[in-house]
Amino acid sequence: MQETIHRGLVGVVADTTEISFIDGDQGELSYRGYDISELTEASYEEVVYLLWNGELPNAAELSAFRDELAPLGALPFEIVDRLRCARPDTEPMHLMRTAVSNLACHDPNPDEVDAENVRRIGHRLLVQFPTIVSTIERLRHGLEPVDPDPELSIAGNFLYTLTGERPTEAATHVMDVALVLHAEHGSNASTFTARTAASSLTDVYSAVTAGVGSLKGPLHGGANEAVMRALEEIGSVENAEPYVMETLAKPHGRVMGFGHRVYRVLDPRAAILARVAQKLARESGESKYWEMSLEIARVMEREMAKRQRAVAPNVDFFSASVYRMLGFPIDMYTPIFAVARISGWMAHLYEQYADNRLVRPLLAYEGPKGKKFKPVSSR
Ligand SMILES: CC(C)(COP(=O)(O)OP(=O)(O)OC[C@H]1O[C@@H](n2cnc3c(N)ncnc32)[C@H](O)[C@@H]1OP(=O)(O)O)[C@@H](O)C(=O)NCCC(=O)NCCS
Asked: How many Å lie between the centroid of ligand 1 and the Cα of residue 258?
């Protein structure tokens, strides 16, 4: 019988979810029924609460959630020591994946996957992720890690533990918006990876470590770093068009930060981040990357229309210049994506563990059959 093969699982609906909804034709994304553009007015904590509990918190619920999270952000000293021992040129995503995996060794109950234990671990990971990233960044510059301040929000603490200085409200707000926009996106590669790992009823740390590994790839979360490297290589607005044309002339040439498996039109997160990038460019007077981004988008729109391809900017295209203007080093962009996406991964793990079925698709075998075994001496 001829099987239908869905390479890349394109169009395959693997399960149901109540967490988020994407309309790729209309360019719409909602978390638990709330349009993403409205949620950029909320703090990251409010949105995490929404993703994890199904509804936005009232003031008392939000305050209790913040109080629960506040003491959990510091890392065990053994994790810091291991990060300290790494070669200073190790890519941050390798350090991050290793640190997340290592956290299991400092948890007295890493393995049980009942709802209570999974949520306990989720709370810890949510606030330990930003500390892991800021600790990596500080250690490689010879600086001591800074413990999170229980008075600050997750976005504020990320900036505080990175720089050692209390961030401005404006910077904290931009960080909140970036975290909210990157928090959740349905069955993307890393979330599917985490859910698939969890479907064997392995532990949360293993599932999340798998998610971090998947996020790192340049076709997924690694794209924001690739976008910034491309912008640096292009260097000026005048060079943008030749760069795009040269890239598209290559077989399967990809301009990073464009295209999406689900969106046929502009990614709604990119539209919001474009406005943030424009505002930051105006305020900082550093408009070069914003102007280059606009020029690349203009040329891509023209060329994709000619080729009748539904390819538009995705979330990574403008997040790159936003992160640049916030002063983050390029190889921190994907770890910062992970700081946001841990909330989405955990929401999906709660769903997966609560009603699990092992994920186990098929592959159509195309190799040889019927071969006869010979012992090694006669091969
Ligand atoms: C995201 C991505 C992996 C989606 O992949 P996909 O659903 O498998 O879509 P495809 O790669 O098959 O793209 C279909 C066609 O659209 C065009 N296309 C898609 N993305 C493109 C891009 N970034 N630049 C130029 N052309 C692109 C190509 O013509 C492609 O056909 P080809 O493979 O014959 O060249 C893909 O668009 C991509 O590689 N983008 C760049 C990386 C990126 O920004 N990733 C972050 C995603 S949020």
From this structure: 7
